[in-house]
């Protein structure tokens, strides 16, 4: 299900102007909802004997967009499914505006939660027209009104000309837009999106993300987006909830998580790292890349120092090394610099190439803001 602009145009039904197929609808025309506060208190979940959620506490403010970020299997989708009512929590509770929708004795059915869902595979019904797909969640609304809302949602995603088409006639990108229109048509107060962009061609993805975010903001829905892509999380959300092994490891703004990651695992999520173990001595830690400030770590404690490759400068004063690798990556260049005391070369990321080649002697120096010191980790 790859989507690209060419296939988009090629598949246009004759009745529809092909140019419109890449343009989204007018901004400000998505239906507005009353945003809700979504709460999780000690939410746990098991699949049989396997624990998938281990006590999730999280409050998502009305109209806030929060990304659930984490590696495969950490429980992101399960938390979304518990919220939607597709899974029952084993413990804890989920609330909307303080009202319990899932708890030890409560299970509000999915269709009564006022929640819009968008799945990774879009989950469109192949035998239904696009309009029927979009108004699927409006079963209790009078038909004419449901169709009016459906057309409006389709217009907002720029697909009003495709109401009577079928999903297979649309590209992946267009199907994504239909899924979005379906999710917003009932004006849900909470919108849940599970990897909504993962099926899209990379060239389309940024544009689709921006348009989708504009629609989310317009609807004012409270939104949770599941992703395993840190850049996507940073781009899309007000706050990021980083998950690991069924737990919320850290929650904060993109800047919080990038600048003050709670541990090395969190730091690794947002950047490649040069990592060295060391011991705090006289307020500093000696590493093969230079001495770094130990911050508040106590004297004699074992630490792991993480250094972002973009925080290593080449040239000038610093620790001597030798360039053992150089790759051109377009916007940046990546150098590998061998230094005494480390079997692994120091990775250095520069904006554009520098006048050094493999075999050259260089010196390296560290930018303090790209140096992070954590308790020593074994892995
Ligand atoms: N239907 C199921 N039956 C049994 N175990 C499951 C089921 N669904 C998920 N799991 C397990 O529960 C854990 C959490 O899965 P979940 O799908 O929530 O993670 P995720 O972070 O969304 O992963 P992904 O990014 O791969 O979708 C994993 O260990 C997974 O193997």
From TrEMBL:
The keyword Nucleotidyltransferase does not apply. Residues 38-270 form the ABC transporter domain. GO terms for cellular component: ATP-binding cassette (ABC) transporter complex. PROSITE patterns: ABC_TRANSPORTER_1 (PS00211), ABC_TRANSPORTER_2 (PS50893). It comes from the Bacteria. GO terms for molecular function: ABC-type ferric iron transporter activity; ATP binding; ATP hydrolysis activity. GO terms for biological process: quaternary ammonium group transport. Keywords: ATP-binding, Cell membrane, Ion transport, Iron, Iron transport, Membrane, Nucleotide-binding, Transport. It holds the Pfam family ABC_tran. The keyword Signal does not apply. Signal peptide: none annotated. Belongs to the ABC transporter superfamily. PANTHER family: SPERMIDINE/PUTRESCINE IMPORT ATP-BINDING PROTEIN POTA (PTHR42781), SPERMIDINE_PUTRESCINE IMPORT ATP-BINDING PROTEIN POTA (PTHR42781:SF4). This is Iron(III) transport system ATP-binding protein. It comes from Kaistia soli DSM 19436.
């Amino acid at each position: 299900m790859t989507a690209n602009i060419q296939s988009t145009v090629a598949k246009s039904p004759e009745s529809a102007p092909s140019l419109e197929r890449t343009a989204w609808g007018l901004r400000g025309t998505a239906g507005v909802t009353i945003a809700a506060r979504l709460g999780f208190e000690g939410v746990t979940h098991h699949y049989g004997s396997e624990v998938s959620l281990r006590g999730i506490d999280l409050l998502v403010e009305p109209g806030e967009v929060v990304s659930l970020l984490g590696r495969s299997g950490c429980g992101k989708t399960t938390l979304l499914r518990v919220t939607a009512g597709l899974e029952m929590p084993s413990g804890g509770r989920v609330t909307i505006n303080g009202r319990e929708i899932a708890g030890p004795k409560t299970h509000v059915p999915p269709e009564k939660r006022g929640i819009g869902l968008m799945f990774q595979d879009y989950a469109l019904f192949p035998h239904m027209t696009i309009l029927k797909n979009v108004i699927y969640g409006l079963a209790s609304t009078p038909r004419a009104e449901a169709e009016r809302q459906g057309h409006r949602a389709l217009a907002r995603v720029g697909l009003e000309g495709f109401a009577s088409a079928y999903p297979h006639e649309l590209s992946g990108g267009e199907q994504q837009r239909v899924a979005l229109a379906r999710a917003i048509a009932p004006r849900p107060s909470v919108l849940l999106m599970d990897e909504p962009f993962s099926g899209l061609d990379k060239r389309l993805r940024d544009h689709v993300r921006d348009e989708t975010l504009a629609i989310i903001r317009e609807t004012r829905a409270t939104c949770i987006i599941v992703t395993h892509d840190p850049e996507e999380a940073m781009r899309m959300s007000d706050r990021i909830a980083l998950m690991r092994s069924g737990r919320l490891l850290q929650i904060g703004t993109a800047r919080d998580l990038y600048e003050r990651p709670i541990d090395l695992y969190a730091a690794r999520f947002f950047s490649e790292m040069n990592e060295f173990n060391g011991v705090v001595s006289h307020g500093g830690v000696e590493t093969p890349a230079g001495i770094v400030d130990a911050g508040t770590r106590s004297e004699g404690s074992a630490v792991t120092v993480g250094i972002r490759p973009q925080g290593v400068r080449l040239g000038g004063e610093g620790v001597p090394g030798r360039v053992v690798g150089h790759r051109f990556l377009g916007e940046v260049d990546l150098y590998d610099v061998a230094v005494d005391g480390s079997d692994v070369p120091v990775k250095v990321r520069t904006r554009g190439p520098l006048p050094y080649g493999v075999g050259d002697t260089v010196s390296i120096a560290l930018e303090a803001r790209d140096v992070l010191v954590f308790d020593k980790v074994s892995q």
